[in-house]
Amino acid sequence: MLRGYESVRFISDKQMVVLDIGSAYTKFGYAGEVSPRGIIRTEVRCPESKQIRRIIDYKDLDDLYQLLVEFIHLMFFRYVVISPKDARILLLESPLAVTSFRDTFAKVMFRHFEVGLILFLPSHLATISTLGIDTALVLDVGYQEATLIPIFEGIPILKAWQALPLAGQIVHENLRKYFNNISKDIDLSEEVLEDIKVRTCFVTTLERSTKLGTKSAPTHPPDVVHLGVKRFLIPGEIREKAFEILWERDNDNLSLSTMILDAIVKCPLDTRRVLAENIVLVGGTTMTKGFASRLKSELLELVKSDLYNEKLKVQSFKFHTAPSKPNYTVWLGGAIFGTTDLLMRCVTKEMYLKTNRVPDWSNLIDNQ
Question: Number of H helices and number of E strands within the chain?
Answer without folding.
Answer: 12, 15
